[in-house]
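Subject: Predicted fold for Aminotransferase class III-fold pyridoxal phosphate-dependent enzyme, 449 residues

User T.R. writes:
Posting the sequence so we have a shared reference for the thread.
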Amino acid sequence: MQHLVTLHKNKNLGDYRDTWLTSAVTASLAQRRQQVLGGTYRLFYDEPVEVASASGVWVTDVAGTRLLDAYNNVPVIGHSDPEVAAAVQAELLRANSHTRYLDREVVDYAERLLARFPAHLDRVAFTCSGSEANDLALQLATHLTGRRGIIVTEHAYHGTTAAVRAVSPSLVTLAGVADYVVTVPIPRDGSDAERAQEFAAAVDRAVAELCRRGLEPAAILVDTALTSDGIFAPAAFVSEGIRRAQASGALFIADEVQAGFCRTGQWWGFEHLDVAPDLVTLGKPMGNGLPIAAVVGPAASFDSFGAEYRYFNTFAGTAAPIAAARVVLDRLGANDTPVRVNALGERLRSGFAQAATDAGVGALVRGAGLMVGVDFAVGGVSPSRAAEYVRELVNELRRREVLVSHTGAHGEALKIRPPLVIDEAEIDELIGRFAAALLALPRLAGDAA
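User M.O. replies:
I've generated the structure tokens; pasting them so everyone works from the same file.
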């Protein structure tokens, strides 16, 4: 096991110190993990993080080092929130049964959640994960339309069940998607109008291809921040393409698992679009780390499906995770969160852009709210070379006690999604460490340079 001890200069503090980034104990734990957990699991970073505790936007490792978490969007109101913990404990000590019994807290939460949606989206079905939510949404779409064809973006991720894995090219590659799936590329260049036209034309071709295969489209399933495609938020340019898919008879499923709950500076990512969803899926941040997700849609859609099929999930919508979700909904609603997130996101994006300019590194900073992508495949740099650089940058930031990851078809973009409780001082700290990391790496140049 490598990287047991690393000596480095922390340029933010200006001093040298021995930093036990991955201790011998952590290395031993990693080896033990490898011997008991299945090969499907992955560890982030060359120097894995062994978490001792976490609070707010900070993760503390077993050596006592505090790491600025700019990646984890699940603890949307902060790690280890005491109000969430107290609410969950109270329900576990009261009753945590299933949805075949009446529970006032579950119904109260459903009413308050639906109040955040357009009037036509007036029913909710709970699941335990975003994967399950997208799976159920696909079941609804194929039942309601009597069709099988699905349109997704070219590097989409929608989950890990068999059904949603088959529509997730980021997992199975373009060649591995199901034969009833057609993918559409995300335009990278041009004006908003040009990109909208290009995306709409790609959707037209996808509809035609499905029909050629004898599979009319049942749904166009879109992550409304285009997170796995490289973060192209706000994604208003996809609106016309989605409308054309709807005109062909497909339902628009807005995947809000990553974009929802104020992440993009609106309650829902689809609010940036000029088209109404037929179904909406929720997940990740909904319970601040508790397993709860959902599908939201019209009563008629659920009634039609429910008349023919049952959907029951033993652990979905039980009182304990609902209690966590209630705290999240209350906190986001009480703090004027969208306005705050937009201001912080603008501060972060402008700071990152200036840091890249100062370092002489070509980068395109995209995003909405605190969903931010930094794309390095610009200025003659190929996506594969940019991906190599991003991998180095992610690990350099890890050494500088910042947690981030990558996204995009090649991994060419940095992915930034901090808990929404991050404040201005922490945003500035993140910008400073990003700037130092850029200066520490060899300068990124075009492939021909």
